[in-house]
Design goal:
Length: 232
């Protein structure tokens, strides 16, 4: 009987060890599952944050970083009393200079007025190149806006932005420059005494000329029918 009890004790000890090993492994799997869940949630949150950003956010961020570095280099050169352009040229290799020169030659020159869409695009590109970002105002607005700084379809921000006095002054100055430049390029058109008078003022006459230029060939028959009195 004592030998039988002695044989049972090792069996129970072995079963207890197996049970503890299974529980330990189950606990490890449980911890790994929680860690995987946490990492997955973190990646989903990061991906959702990236999706809310503009499509060209990375390019804009790189551009702003480059401009900040350029400004820092300019300040350092100014503090040392050096010309930034000369210092920058010293860092350019001959191969880079040749590549930039070839790239510059490939660019199409301005061929003048080709259409209102092209002129508007050139003006937009010219105006955007003149914009210099104010990173301090950018960070301040981001802190004040909070989550609304990256708006979604459910964000209502219309009418909440108040422009600064400096921004309004820049806009007024730019509009005045555009008006001044436009006045220099305007020229007197030849007046035709025999042309039909189908306008009430100069502005209406210019509008009619544009409409005739783009849609005249489509409305010529209708106009002739109206003049003959045979229009249906």
């Amino acid at each position: 009987q004592e030998s039988a009890v002695t044989d049972v004790e090792p069996v129970e000890t072995l079963a207890s060890q197996k049970r503890e090993a299974r529980l330990r492994k189950f606990k490890e799997l449980h911890l790994k599952r929680n860690e995987a869940h946490r990492l997955n949630h973190q990646e989903v949150a990061e991906e959702d944050k990236k999706l809310k950003l503009p499509s060209n956010w990375e390019a804009k961020k790189a551009r702003l970083q480059w401009e900040l570095e350029e400004n820092e280099k300019k300040k350092e050169c100014a503090a040392r009393g050096e010309d930034y352009d000369r210092v920058k040229l010293l860092e350019v290799t001959a191969s880079d200079a040749e590549r930039w020169q070839r790239k510059k030659k490939k660019k199409n020159p301005d061929t003048g007025f080709a259409g209102y869409a092209e002129a508007q695009l050139r003006q937009y590109q010219r105006l955007t190149k003149q914009i210099k970002p104010n990173m301090e105002a950018y960070d301040k607005q981001r802190e004040e806006s909070g989550e609304d700084f990256y708006p979604t379809s459910n964000t209502l921000i219309h009418g909440t932005h108040v422009p600064t006095k400096e921004g309004i002054d820049r806009m007024v100055e730019d509009v005045e420059k555009q008006i001044e430049k436009r006045s220099k390029y305007s020229r007197r058109r030849a007046y035709n005494d025999d042309a039909d008078i189908d306008y009430i003022n100069e502005r209406n006459a210019k509008f009619n000329q544009k409409a005739e230029r783009f849609y005249g060939k489509y409305t010529a028959e209708i106009k002739q029918n109206l003049e003959r009195g045979t229009a249906v």
